[in-house]
Specification:
globular; 306 residues; mainly alpha; 74% helix
Length: 306
């Protein structure tokens, strides 16, 4: 068993446990001290993501720059990454729509509560902070443990942890897919700044759209009703339309990723024999994480339909 993979998976498991155990505890503290909602996410990410990351590097003594891939990225790559971020939006929207057949859109509920604060503050909270801290932990620490693993397997595993750490059903599918794409960007460019840029553009776009359209949401149904408020025929049409758009966007993203491979001379992506495929990536921290996540989702379903 590869020690780096085990450590990375263990780190991911601990993040998941911390989020589940500590998040509610922190929210109670925030409520007690009457901390404004705009500070909640920032403090939560610092406590639950940055602090564990610092501890990880102290314990493992791994080189920070190499592990996190703090390398410069070319202008051409940046432009392609920005386009990928924009093209990925319809894919996210379709996957979010699919999960809303079961789960309410919690993230839009949260964003609607922030509409009273300035746009620049919203961008800092929803776009800048997650783009830094979530990328450092998942595409930095966890993906760093998969250096000797085939890129597809590494992308799947980091996508899985990325989805589990978000901890709710509505975000499960699109966070997994985005986590998969982000891992490819980091591996291809050998820079964590690629996923940070993509993450920021995606979250930032959603924030700006929500802010600009906030008046349209007034006097309408709450986000907790989700797709229940949409007429059945309209819902079917919208789902099929979004499915077609998502498929087209996936094809475009694949083309752009291949372009990114050429620009960065990333040849290893197709050389499967260069990877140590005998390394076991499914170890006990992954199984524990999956069990915890499944229980969390079951409880969420019970809270919705129970």
């Amino acid at each position: 068993m590869n020690n780096k993979v085990l450590k990375a998976n263990f780190f991911g498991m601990m993040l998941l446990i911390l989020y589940i155990v500590s998040q509610k505890f922190l929210l109670l503290i925030f409520k007690h001290i009457k901390l404004p909602i705009e500070y909640n996410l920032v403090i939560t990410q610092v406590v639950l993501l940055l602090v564990p990351t610092i501890i990880y590097f102290i314990v493992t003594k791994y080189p920070i720059k190499k592990t996190l891939r703090l390398n410069r990225i070319g202008i051409k790559s940046v432009l392609i990454i920005i386009i990928i971020a924009i093209i990925s939006q319809p894919i996210m929207m379709f996957l979010s729509l699919i999960t809303q057949f079961i789960f309410p859109n919690r993230i839009m509920e949260f964003m609607s509560r922030l509409n009273s604060i300035p746009l620049i503050a919203q961008l800092m909270i929803i776009a800048v902070v997650p783009a830094i801290f979530e990328e450092i932990t998942v595409r930095g620490v966890i993906l760093g443990g998969y250096d000797d693993i085939d890129i597809k397997k590494a992308a799947i595993m980091t996508g899985l942890f990325f989805a589990m750490i978000h901890g709710n059903g509505n975000q499960a599918l699109y966070t997994f897919v985005l986590g998969f794409i982000f891992a490819y960007l980091v591996k291809i460019t050998n820079s964590i700044f690629s996923s940070m840029i993509c993450h920021f553009i995606i979250n930032g776009t959603s924030t700006v759209i929500s802010f600009l359209s906030k008046r349209n949401f007034e006097n309408k149904v709450s986000y907790s009703e989700g797709i229940k408020s949409i007429p059945y025929k309209e819902l079917i049409f919208q789902t099929l339309f979004m499915f077609i758009i998502a498929i087209i966007c996936i094809k475009i993203v694949m083309i752009l990723i291949r372009k990114l491979i050429k620009i960065n001379n990333f040849e290893q992506i197709n050389n499967m024999h260069e990877y140590k495929n005998s390394i076991k990536i499914m170890n006990w921290p992954v199984y524990v994480s999956l069990v915890i996540y499944i229980i969390t989702i079951i409880k969420e379903i019970e809270s919705i339909y129970g």
